[in-house]
Amino acid sequence: MEISLERKFEDKIAEDLKIEPQDWMPDEYRKTLIRQISQHAHSEVVGMLPEANWLTRAPSLKRKIALLAKVQDEGGHGLYLYSAAETLGVSRDKMIEDLHSGKAKYSSIFNYPSLTWADMGAIGWLVDGAAIMNQVALCRTSYGPYARAMVRICKEESFHQRQGYQIMLTLSNGSSEQKEMAQDALNRWWWPALMMFGPKDSDSPHSEQSTRWRIKRLSNDELRQKFVDATVPQALFLGLTVPDKDLKWDEKTNTYQFGDINWDEFWTVVKGDGPCNKDRIQTRIKAYQDGEWVREAAMAYADKQQDRSSKMVG
Ligand code: FAQ
User: Which of 174, 268, 300, 312 is the most core-located residue (most Cβ within 10 A)?
Assistant: First the structure.
């Protein structure tokens, strides 16, 4: 019985069909998806914080509206992703508890501070740019609810990337102080953006199995390379310098070769000792506690609605 279910699952994967919540799936496949999707959801929600920091200081009403819409979108992405993870049998409360206790991860990138307005440009351009590179590939991931959430998320992320690039373009064509601010933001966000794709393939414990199950469609290194190749010409167009002395175009492979990533820094941040890790989690815990009354009111309203409709049926 079990063998034929497993065979059916493997056949679906081989035929590139989607696995749906009601389908049988190996426990490890379910666990891997819960881990990845919940971490992805947490990244979207914690990822609201560096930009929220600048909402009250946006330089114009137009910029403020665009940034506010972007930050709200990220919260929405978190919600789609928590819902996708819930279809695998994990509760939202459990996922949030794991985030607050430090058991669950979220993207390393959100543990860096946003120091100037130019960081709003760099985050949209580089962080959303890196996120899209990964998420476009995830539109073809094997688990149906995750793949479908990604399609909508990618559409919104591409607007985010453009609003960030547009800020960088304005600053790069502005006064010398503004151009310096843009360069400084690129200097600080470039390497952390490359780290977003995760450890080198040779040091990535989950890659082999996730690739076999078609959860991952491109490897960490493949996605990182695609990001570098797409982004370096954008930096050149801005007249900015990518902070990598080893960066060079390779005629043979038609790709940019780039310098070594500081993996010690990456693991320090992932393990909880980055510049803002503690602050980010404390802020999330406080926001969750402050929102208790909203959740209670929403649940009371939902219960009342249910009461009313069961009375009407009765
Ligand atoms: N940060 O074996 P692998 C966004 C962990 S969304 C922290 O390679 P895997 C939108 C990894 O979890 C950004 N931890 O793992 C936005 C694992 O630890 P574990 C988020 C990392 O899963 C923009 C260990 O290292 N995107 O930015 C990181 O096969 C602007 C070994 O690694 C996603 O989550 C990292 N960077 O591949 C929002 C995309 N990298 O779990 C607001 C979905 C690795 O065993 C503003 N996720 N680790 O304890 C994925 O594609 C994959 O999970 C990877 C990692 C590629 C991130």
Answer: 268
